[in-house]
Predict the 3D structure of the following.
Amino acid sequence: MSALPVYKPGRNPADLAREIGVPRAVKLASNEVAFPPLPAVVRAIADTAGETNRYPDNGAGVLTAALAARYDVDPAQIATGCGAVMLCQQLAQAYADPGTSMAFAWRSFEMYPLLAQVAGARAVQVPLVPGVQGGPADTHDLGALLAAIDDTTRVVFVCNPNNPTGTAVRRAELERFLDAVPASTLVVLDEAYREFVTDPEVPDGIELMRGRPNVAVLRTFSKAWGLAGLRVGYLIAEDPAVAEAVRKTHVPFSVSMLAQAAAVAALASEDEVVARVAEVTAERTRLSGELRRRGHAVADSQANFVWLPVGEQAAGLAAALEARAVITRPFAGEGVRVTVGTPEEDDVFLAALDAVTAATSAA
Ligand SMILES: *Cc1c(COP(=O)(O)O)cnc(C)c1O
């Protein structure tokens, strides 16, 4: 177990502010939304608080029914979990064994290699390719991912939009890929950022899944829906047997009563969520433009973060930003992921970036 890499969460802004002696640090590291929980969510949590001496509904029946109605699927096609990361782990437990493999693009969500390792399966990592000619490696190579699948491959993850590059694969190429993947390999479309997609050519995985029994979609309440602190995600599979396999590895009661109530209230407030998402995507456009104006080759992001492909400067840049009270997420040797914050937060980030650039060119 000591060989396992440790998952690194974003730094706590209060700790950083204290350490460097400033009133407040800005955290743009974990792709949360900056808005406080919706009023209906806060009410639902308060209303439920008085019942928390009891165990939650292990099957999350009310939430599952609400999800089934919202996405027009049968409740038997759904598994809920303590965050989508727990569902990823359950998928690995249900499908991967020593001698099998899990395939995914790299760089992508940092949980995927960990999952394979914990399951004792081989992680097959297929490099991203440049999204634009001569540009950084920032998008899926579905042809190479398909070629990497063999008869040991139990699960393929396609993170769409991809974390941390923000790029998304479009309908035609994804359909071609799904049509070609062998029926014995489960394709998991990780759509943690689906709600932020504005490109009409980027397909909704739940629609693509229909009629394809080896496809499942992962979604979460942590990002657009604003419930990162409550831990609730879900899987929707075309084949109920996939959802059942995932449910069988569920740690009992791991989706808390408060999380279930909050998620149901959030779903019922979808109009407000959509309005907030529109603010985030408008700010994403502004932030991307500001970064491009500064000479950064920022790809069109379909998520609530942008990717600075700064290569070898990634760790140094993130450390220099942190010294100026801005927490971002570096991937050493590759780039820095920056969550789209409020316009005010993003201006603090841009000013810090300008200061770092000025200090670097003066040195
Ligand atoms: C954030 C994220 C998740 C899931 O997050 P949870 O908080 O565990 O629901 C899943 N996949 C990707 C790619 C993510 O970025």
In short: The longest helix spans residues 270-293. The chain has a mean pLDDT of 96. DSSP finds 13 helices and 14 strands in the chain.
